[in-house]
Amino acid sequence: MRRIINAIITIIMLIVVIFILIHVIAPNPLTLAKIYSGNPHPTYAQLIVIERKYGLNKPLYVQIINYISNLFHGNLGMDPVYKVPVVNLLSKYIPRTLEITIPATVLSVIIGLVTGAIGASNRGKVLDYFVRGVYLVTWSSPTFLIATVLQLGVAYYLKLLPPYGIVNPALTSPSRITGFPLIDSAIAGDWVYFVSVLRHMILPVTSLAVANFGIVTRLSRSSMLVHMNSDYAKLSLVKGLSRRRVVYGVVLRNASIPIVTLIALLFGSSIAGSVAVEDIFQYHGMGWFITNSLLNLDYVGILSTTVIVAVFIIVANLVADILYSVLDPRVRVGG
Predict the structure, then answer these.
(1) Which residues face 78 on adjacent strands?
(2) CA-based Rg of the chain, rounded to a whole angstrom?
(3) What 3-state DSSP class applies to 85?
(4) CA proximity to 226, closest of 260, 261, 254
(5) Helix locations, 151-190, DSSP H
(6) What residues are paired with 85 via a beta bridge?
(7) In this structure, what DSSP letter does residue 78 have?
(8) Residues 6+ apart with CB under 8 A from 119
(9) Distance between CA atoms of 13 and 7, rounded to whole angstroms?
(10) Which residues of 178-194 are buried (b: 16+ CB within 10 A; e: fewer)?
(11) Count of beta carbons in the 10 Å neighbourhood of residue 126
(12) pLDDT tens readout for residues 73-122
């Protein structure tokens, strides 16, 4: 409950900061109305209508209170560029982003644990240096660079996967049930559409996973080296268990517990990285929507997506804390 309350306070503080920044950029209500309009050349009458509609002429604290009140009622406002409620846009784009960020997070954890175990079990050998070199290169490389290299190499030169898009535009989409294209096509039994969506997902998911697995590799390798010198690991070897079984069956399981705390960071990093990845692959998800909101000065969209991303990251941190306390009961004793 304490963490949930802290999460709510964090979201409110974030909204306050965003409102302050917007008003620093455009302190005049009419200037702010022009930004909210999404129109580069609005008339004075249109600005007055927008000013009254959004209450831009009211004190800043009143605007913040009104926005938070509407937020808790599920009202994120009307998008001035698309002329539809922002909720309708987000309900379309969020599932698409989650459909690549969740698998990317899972894949980065799996790759990180495996490479970390390989590095730890071959400490000081060529394979260990190779693993460390690979994760340092990928970890230090920006996400857009990794995405571009994969797009050029796999899609354009090798022609193994589609270079951009969510699905083959010639295909008819199945009925919307969950909003997740892959899941909806599976429910509808449209396997041609399912395979097309899956093929288009591979490069964005791989780009995010490659960019993020390095931190898992580093932490899992360090944690495993500590556990491999522990008494229980030495006792397992004395009992006759093979070194391979001790490393991958006993040590890796215990060393992976701290990785749970990284899940929230990896998920947040995937959400942030999706902005560049979706733009490169023209994958129309929330990251693509954020990019277009910035280009169009759609501050209603920017504010809404910022709040949504914050909620995702805060919830992911909360889930990670709960899972960690389940895996290691000592955390609950310490409060």
Answers:
(1) 85
(2) 24
(3) strand
(4) 254
(5) 181-188
(6) 78
(7) B
(8) 127, 128, 131, 132, 217, 221
(9) 10
(10) eebbbbbbbeeebeebb
(11) 8
(12) 878 777 777 778 888 888 889 999 999 999 999 999 889 888 888 888 78
Q: Are 194 and 186 in contact (CB under 8 A)?
A: yes
Give CA–CA dist 210/135, Å, rounded. 9
What are the tokens at 291?
A: 């990019």
109, two tokens: 């954890």
Residues 249, 255, 261, 262: what is their CA dihedral angle, to the nearest 10 degrees? -80
Q: Using an 8 Å Cβ cutoff, are 178 and 95 in contact?
A: yes
Angle at 79 between CA 100 and CA 82, to 5 degrees: 80
Count the neighbouring beta carbons within 10 Å of the beta carbon of residue 169: 8
Mapped onto helix, strand or coil, the DSSP state of residue 300 is helix
201-249 per-position pLDDT tens digit: 999 999 999 988 888 888 888 877 777 777 777 777 777 777 677 766 6
Which sign does the torsion angle of CA 258, 259, 264, 269 carry?
positive
What number of residues does the chain have? 335
Dig out the tokens for 129 from the structure: 């240096």
Alpha-carbon gap, residue 236 to 191, rounded angstroms: 48
Which structure tokens are listed for 81?
């560029």
- One-letter amino acid at 326 equals V
Query: Helices 29-37 and 2-25 sit at what angle, rounded to 10 degrees?
Result: 110
